[in-house]
Prior knowledge:
There is one protein chain. This protein is of the alpha/beta class. Helices cover 27% and strands 28% of the residues. It is built from eight helices and twelve strands. The strands form two sheets. Strands 5-8-7-6-9-10-12-11 form an eight-stranded mixed sheet. It has a four-stranded antiparallel sheet with strand order 1-2-3-4, with no helix packed on it. Strand 7 (119-124), helix 4 and strand 8 form a beta-alpha-beta unit. Helix 1 (62-73) packs across helix 7, helix 2 (78-91) packs across helix 3 (105-113) and helix 7 packs across helix 8 (250-258). The longest helix has 14 residues, at 78-91. The protein is globular and about 60 Å long. 36% of the residues are buried.
Amino acid sequence: MHQHHNPSSCYLCPLCAAPLTLTPSTKSYICENNHHFDLAKEGYLNLLPVQHKRSGEPGDSKQMMQARREFLEAGYYAAMAKSVAMIIEASRPTHLLDLGCGEGYYSRKIESDCSTLMMLHGVDIAKFAIRAAAQKQANARFIVASSNRLPYVDQYFDFVLRVFAPSNGDELRRVLKPSGLLLTVTPGPRHLWQLKEFIYAEVQEHALESAVPQGFERIDSQRIRYKISPNPQQRIALLQMTPFAWRANESVQQTIKDADQLDIETDFILTLAIKTAD
């Protein structure tokens, strides 16, 4: 039994936005309008109502999730994750939200690398990703929901982490406390350059600075770059994690697999921003 779900909750009903309360006897969250949401046996909560789903299973496909899991677990992004954890450690948050958390790789790195005691929350639209995250990290609280309608009470978090995930600036502001922090990881100018060379006739550099959402002010920025040499299968897994994967047809993928020794540049921009006063 997960002890950390307390009755007065941080959640809002996704149907009517009233606060949700946990009924311990039934392991169910319920609002004043009698909408209820059961805690899954793995410990996560599905707060994505059927009518908010645009497809049968929103989020990444199972195959893509599997590929991403194997690539991340192989440690290729561990150096970036370590830097993320150090930035979080330095600001000592009490409630942190990992936005678009997937299977919880970064949440687990934060839990293992930070000595600060904090309540970790993760949200993603893909249910099987959240199920996997909850199974691997019993001390964190994971929910299925859309980043455009975060079912959390106002000003609950003091820190939001967003690694390559879509977000909604207004929602970020709403769920963050005054002077709350937002740490964003975005691709730097040379990110995955060698993969892109297989796909684009002319590769364009990303901007060196990532945009900060309205109502936030940049307070720090860090660029992390290093080379990785994934094997042929892992290259394809990495490709499938990118927004340009759809451009790579079978023959391009085969060429990427067959490339002799392929060193790929990683290039991450970590941007720390603070919520400004209204």
